[in-house]
Each structure stands twice: as structure tokens, then as C-alpha cells.
């Protein structure tokens, strides 16, 4: 069988819970995954898949060549079942083209009752989390969808690497928090703000938390540096120093996690650590990471969930004071105890 999942990192990580459901429903079956080249490395050591292949369908140049490459690759697979976890116009187009060129995969599972799918659920009310829609699709195919959080195969190399990081920075299990204060630069309105994160870090440290760890990527270096400059040596700034597989391993021993709506939060949700995700212009009903250990916090304003790229006031974030976030995190940690 063939699984399709492209999209952004957060969506791909979320889908790994579905991969787990499918693997458990078809023990011993040969399962292939088609994803984007940038995410292929996530599944290098994933025993659920016999094959992982990637075609850069998002590249602006050479689109027809890549479409032909994809059709040839899938046709050569002789699949009897395709599960489309992408379910957008592009995946529907490609599967339709596959049918038109004579490759008739018998069972085609998607989330809409329309061609090219012959297995799909009833339409769900909107807005709906992508996971809810995908789980409904699997259930329509008789696949139990119950895995509560993402499942990634974390290489031993990264286990050893995180062990070294924790020893180097004196990070002891249950005695540090992880903050993810950034996000993609283009979506900067999703950032709660360096000053607020710094105030929250100082509050937790004053309450006895030994270390606060900052995690982020290249777009978030300045944000993390601004936080570090207003905190003491107890703050550990690992922004730009971690690999993707390091993130869940660093998060699992932490006491708590506070994050913006960012791909890193989805990686953190592989862990069972209590996590608060701060939402402003994006809808928690659509973007919340998986897991019963994860909650979201959002201001009550008429303009929330606007998904705008610019804003003159950014009230959705300024109304969420450090004290309010601190109180919600404290409640979350107490509930998890």
C-alpha cells in the first residue's frame, strides 16, 4: 500500500500518529510512504515503511517533469491501496491522472466523497482539526485511529547527542522547562514576544525551576538572544544548536513546555511532557499539537483566528500576560501530576 503525506513539518509530524494506526492495522504488510524531499530524513530509520520516496512536487520549475516522475513511480509500485493523507487539489489531481493513464488502484482512501476516492467519510462540520478529518477517513476504511500522539523513530545518535547536551548544561529530569519562543519569520504574528517569554522565564526561575532551555531554528536566533540577554546564566540558549530529532528527546525529561504555534511544538508533542501552546492569529481547533498533555491558550477577542500576516496592534498576544500564562501552566502541570 501507499501513503501520501507532503505539507509542512507540523502536519507531517501529526500524521505519524496515523502512520502508527495504519501499521498496526496491517501487520506484516508492505507499506510505502511518499513525502517531500525535505521530510524524507524523518523516516530514514522508521521500520513501519518498506520504502520512502520523495518527489519535489512544490518546485516551481520542471512541474510537468516531476508529475510524470511521480506517476511513473506510483504506477511501478502496483499498489492495491492508496491512503491519501494530504487530500488537497494536487493529490486529487495526481490520483485522477493516475487513473486516466490506466493505473487503477482498487482501493483509494481519502477524506472526501468524490473522485478519485472510493473510500471516504461523511463531510465534517468546519472548522475541524486536520487530525479529526484524517481519523474519520481511516475509520471509514475500517482502520482504528486511536494513537494519541505523534510517533517517530528517534536514532540512537540523537539519544547520545542529547545525553551530552544535558550533561554539558546540567539539565536534570524534572528540573528544567523548554520554551519555543519563535516561529517561521513570515508568520511572526504567531510569536508571543521575547519580553514576555523573558518575564515568564524569570518567574519560573524565581519559583525554583533550575533551568529554562530555549529551542529554535535559524529564523529565531534573534528572538532567543533577546530573551537570553534579560535572564541569568541559568537560561540555556540552544537555539540553532539542535537537530530535529533532538527536540522530543530534550522535551521528554522536562517539567513543562511553553511554545508558540510552530513546527517545533509538534515535534515536542512526541513527548508526554505537559505543554502549553500560545495561539493568536491561528485557530487552536486547527493547529493544536496532538496529545492529552497539550493545551492551548488564546485571548478572547473578535479578531482571533484572523490568519493575517500584518497587524497594527497584535492584541491577541499582548492580552496574554506572563502572569496569565504562568497561572495556566501551573494548572496544567498540577493536572498532569
TrEMBL record:
Q: What GO MF terms are annotated? A: ADP-heptose-lipopolysaccharide heptosyltransferase activity
Can you cite a GO biological process for this protein? lipopolysaccharide core region biosynthetic process
Q: Which UniProt keywords apply?
A: Glycosyltransferase, Transferase
One annotated Gene Ontology cellular component of this protein? cytosol
From the Swiss-Prot or TrEMBL record, give the protein name.
Heptosyltransferase
What is the source species? Candidatus Contendibacter odensensis
Q: Kindly list the organism's lineage.
A: Bacteria, Pseudomonadati, Pseudomonadota, Gammaproteobacteria, Candidatus Competibacteraceae
